[in-house]
Structure formats: C-alpha cells, structure tokens
Specification:
Layout lengths: L2 H7 L3 H13 L3 H10 L24 E3 L1 H11 L12 E3 L16 E7 L4 E7 L3 E7 L4 E5 L2 E4 L5 E4 L5 E5 L5 E7 L1 H7 L4 E3 L17 E2 L1 H9 L3 E2 L2 E5 L10 E7 L14 E7 L1 E6 L2 E6 L3 E4 L5 E5 L3 E7 L1 H7 L6
Antiparallel strand pairs: 1-19, 2-3, 3-10, 4-9, 4-11, 5-8, 5-10, 6-7, 6-9, 8-12, 13-14, 14-15, 15-21, 16-19, 16-21, 17-18, 17-20
Bound molecules: fe (ii) ion.
Length: about 325
C-alpha cells in the first residue's frame, strides 16, 4: 500500500484530536451522535435504516418484455448503429429500481441482440459469465469462444464463461436475433470486474468440434426435455453447465397445452425466455401473457406459476447456484 492510500484511509490527526475532545465533553447521546457521525461510526441502536428484516424484500418487479417490440426496436436502431460503432447492438432489459437502467433482476441482466448479415461483433473478454439463447438465425451465424467455432441456430444455448474471448459473426442471409443473459449485476455487487478488447478485434477459429461444453444445441436439449419425467404435463431439464458457469444455472421447462407449474417461491432470482408456445405467468400480484421470444423477470421470493395455452417450452435461468453455495437458498 502506498503512503497516500494510508493517509486517505484514516482521519487526519487533528480530526481525531477534535473527536476525542468532543467525546469527552459530550453531555448526552444527542451530543454524542454528531461526533460519531463525523468519525464515520454509526451507533447500532440509532441506525437510519434497518439492517435486518424478517424475510426477503425487493424493489425488483416481475416484468415482461415482448420479443415483437424489442425486435422492432433493434431493427430501427440498426438503421443508425452498426457493429463498427457499437461493441454490441443490444437492448438491455432493465428493472426500474431507483436509477437502475441495467439490471434485469438483482444478479443477472438479459438483453436482446441483433447481428445483420455480413456483420461481426468484435472479440473481447470480461469477468462476467454469459450465455446466448438464439431466437432467429440461419446457418451462417456463429460465435467464436476461445477459438472454438460454435453454431447459433434457433433454440441453441451457447456459453461464454468468465475471461473467455468471444465474438459473433453473421455470414448468413437473414438477421440474427438472440437473448444474452449475464451475471454482470452480481459482478458489479462484488466488484471483481475486468474487461479486455482483443488487440486484433478478431480471434481466429482454431477448432470446429461437433460437440463442445460451450455448445448446447436445441436438437439435443429438446430431445432430452421430451423424455424427462412428466408431472401433470410439466417436464424440466437442467443443463450440465455448472462446470463452465458457476453463478447461474440454465434449464428448460416444457408445458403441454393447459398444463401449469406448481406455484413456487424461493430466494433465487430468475430470468425466463420463451422458446415456443404461449401462456400466462402469475408472479406475485402480476399476471402477464407471454409468447415466443418474450423475456420474463422473476425477482427472488415472489410466488410464481406458469400456465400454457399451447404446447410451450421456456428457457429457465436462475442464480440458485450462488445462493446454494453461500447457504442462502431457501424455499417457502
Ligand atoms: Fe461480451
């Protein structure tokens, strides 16, 4: 530690001397409080706000974003913003908490992203972990993650773990749309953020494997989901991703037309996205109607229940691994 950091971290001696004199002369608690405050101490019995409460409370709201609207917004933005100007052409789905204009739920952010034919989003890495869930793209769209070429086809899930170089290419004929989900808000809270741009902007394709832990193709996941045990028309599949990304889990839930999930509540924050079908979600006091491509934010400790009008499949991500590892996961 350098000397200036040491000096900055403590009260100047004359302030400590003054505090000592003021403490000695204080004749009441009311005279003590301003001295404590100027000495950067809060009396635990005289806090401005509670530090403990009986159960989780959050200002994050249950919210729903429509793919149709976000897609139109991206199409419009693409008239004026390209991947030369923007590191990513994406729309972050924020929850209106205070001045927040980024976080979707407490620990995660979701964004819609568009890549036009012929475009590429340049290579970078960062501390936050990311996944992509592809909505619409054709054969020529792919990501490169640490040199591994990974296809991006509708329903596919791609992983870009912390510190992995990643870039996106659209060499197809149609616009590519996908949903990004990252743990950036968690990294903001804990503060270990690092970010680097690739010196060449591109990264070379070094491997083009048929299978890779970064790639969870729809063909495989839908087959696994279809054969998972069913309970009242509801099937669940948790993808094997925790060896790559430790901060959020990724799975799918399918509902036959008319089926509904058991109403649940737990301390995890969730982001869901609709792969196919339509239905309703009841989250806390809010009811919303979802359809293909939509994103749903479910804050922690809200009761939530999904009901399908048509055969449906939804992506289901949550920060459950963080809560479990810290001993904070609870249902009720
Ligand atoms: Fe990134």
């Amino acid at each position: 530690m350098n000397s200036s950091a040491t000096a900055d971290a403590s009260l100047p001696n004359d302030m400590n001397d003054q505090a000592t004199r003021d403490l000695q002369s204080a004749g009441s608690l009311d005279e003590l409080y301003p001295v404590l405050s100027s000495s950067r101490m809060t009396p635990g019995w005289h806090k401005k706000r509670a530090s403990l409460w009986h159960e989780p409370k959050t200002q994050f709201q249950p919210l729903h974003w429509r793919y149709a609207v976000s897609r139109l917004a991206l199409d419009q933005a693409a008239k004026w913003i390209g991947t030369e100007l923007a590191e990513r052409r994406n729309l972050l789905l924020f929850n209106p908490v205070g001045d927040n204009d980024y976080d979707t739920v407490r620990t995660m952010v979701a964004a819609y992203q568009l890549l036009l034919p012929g475009e590429h989003a340049r290579a970078h890495w960062h501390t936050p972990n990311a996944m992509r869930f592809i909505l619409d793209a054709d054969e020529g769209c792919y990501s490169v993650v640490n040199g591994v070429k990974v296809p991006m086809l509708p329903g596919d899930v791609l992983l870009t773990p912390a510190y992995a170089w990643h870039s996106h290419f659209n060499e197809g004929k149609s616009n590519a749309y996908w949903i990004d989900i990252l743990d950036v808000p968690l990294v903001h809270l804990i503060e270990p953020m690092f970010f680097a741009e690739h010196p060449d902007k591109y990264q070379k394709v070094e491997q083009e494997p048929a299978q890779h832990p970064f790639y969870l193709p729809a063909t495989s996941t839908l087959e696994q989901l279809a054969t998972a045990p069913a309970a009242d028309g509801v099937r669940r599949l948790t993808l094997d991703t925790l060896s790559e990304i430790k901060t959020f889990d990724i799975g799918f839930v399918s509902l036959a037309a008319g089926a509904k999930t058991v109403q649940a509540r737990n301390t995890a924050s969730r982001i869901m996205a609709v792969q196919k079908g339509s239905g309703t979600a009841r989250i806390g006091d809010v009811t919303m109607n979802w359809s293909r491509g939509d994103v749903i934010a479910i804050p922690g400790w809200k009761h939530y229940q999904l009901e399908a009008q048509t055969d449906s499949v939804l992506l289901d991500t949550s920060d459950t691994p963080v809560l479990r590892n810290l001993g904070f996961y609870r249902e009720g």
